[in-house]
Amino acid sequence: MGLTFTYFYNSPSYAGRAGDVLEDNPVGRLKVFVYELLRKYNKKILQKDPRCLTHMFAAEIFMHRFLLSSPVHTLNPDEADWFYTPVYTTSNLTPNGLPLPFKSPRMMRSAIQLISSNWPYWNRTEGADHFFIVPHDFGACFHYQEKKAIERGILPLLWRSTLVQTFGQRNHVCLKQGSITIPPYAPPQKMLGN
Asked: Which of 127, 50, 113 is closest to 84 using CA atoms?
């Protein structure tokens, strides 16, 4: 069995597939295209209320920034393995600093409509090679009350996409199989106790 495993990963027909991540430098092969969206989906929201940089859902902002400066970022969508759509769905805050998720489904649908009508990449896989950061209380169900989140469910447009979210309760309507669960954002100054 060990011989078969070794042969499989070393066989020429396997070259260039997901097994490459087992090699020394997977970053050299992984490519992520970041859509350049209208400012209303991200930068304008951040400009309107900089408090969203320090709330627990700020992962969508910092992941966007990270990807733009990362060695996996590509400007050529034709060489991309993954596509990231930077929609800041948790950065619309109340005066008390709480996210307002009620506009999030409409905002997400609008962003997907924009990318699907201007680029061919969404349409060729129905978003299966796309990922979204959805750090709401109940992820892509976009509601902070569990009962209403369950009623709403995950936005159907996102069913084939990979969701990166802070919500990770197993066997829950709002946690899609294949989602990636990350911890909530914690500002470095709070982590250091300053």
From this structure: 127
Q: Could you identify the residue written with the tokens 């709403």?
A: 152
Are the beta carbons of 55 and 108 closer than 8 angstroms? no
Q: CB-based burial of residue 141 (10 Å sphere; 0-12 exposed, 13-18 middle, 19+ buried)?
A: buried
pLDDT (tens digit, 9 = 90+) per residue, 97-107? 777 777 888 99
Residue 158 buriedness (CB in 10 A; 0-12 / 13-18 / 19+): buried
pTM: 0.79
Check if the beta carbon of residue 172 is closer than 8 Å to that of residue 141: no
Q: What percent of the chain has pLDDT over 70?
A: 84
Contact, 52 vs 98, CB < 8 A? no
d(CA 5, CA 22): 13
| pLDDT value, residue 54 | 84
